Amino acid sequence: MISMKISDVSKMVDLPISTLRYYEKKGIIPETYMVRDENNYRAYDEKIIPFMMSLKSLLSAGFSIHEIKDILSRKELAREQQLEIIEEKMNEIEELQKKLDDAKHFLQDSLQSAEDCTW
């Protein structure tokens, strides 16, 4: 095991140290990736890097910290459950996208109405 400091992990995954500590506090980063050295400093296993990159991808895909924590707490998810979670998130994104499109059309119509208005 190659142990790394939090600053090393921060640089490698392009996240602030404060964010990593927040994820630790919330229980998002499994303790299997962390150990305390003789000075009580955190040391991280190199395997945390792919884990953190996956975490960042999930966040970018629209999953909340709460949702990710829930997924991680389920330990071994069956492939069927994984697909169901992904499909649910895709449906949420599609609904949000429709709402955003509706709002955009409303604003475009409002702009057009304002431009056509002569006072």
Please identify the oligomeric state: single chain
Which H/E pattern describes the elements? Answer: EHHEEHHH
Number of helices: 5
Radius of gyration: 21 Å
Verbal overview:
With 119 residues, this protein is mostly helical. Helix content is 65%, strand content 8%. It has helices at 6-13, 17-25, 48-60, 65-73, 79-116; strands at residues 3-4, 34-36, 42-45. The longest helix is centred in the last third of the chain and has 38 residues, at 79-116. The protein starts with a strand and ends with a helix.
Spell out the key features of this protein:
119 residues, three-stranded antiparallel beta sheet, MerR-type_HTH_dom, DNA-binding transcriptional MerR regulator, DNA-bd_dom_put_sf, DNA binding, single chain, 5 helices, MerR_fam, 3 strands, mainly alpha, 8% strand
Spell out the blueprint of helices and strands.
Elements: E1 3-4, H1 6-13, H2 17-25, E2 34-36, E3 42-45, H3 48-60, H4 65-73, H5 79-116
Antiparallel strand pairs: 1-3, 2-3
Short structural description:
By secondary structure, the protein is mostly helical. It is 65% helix and 8% strand.
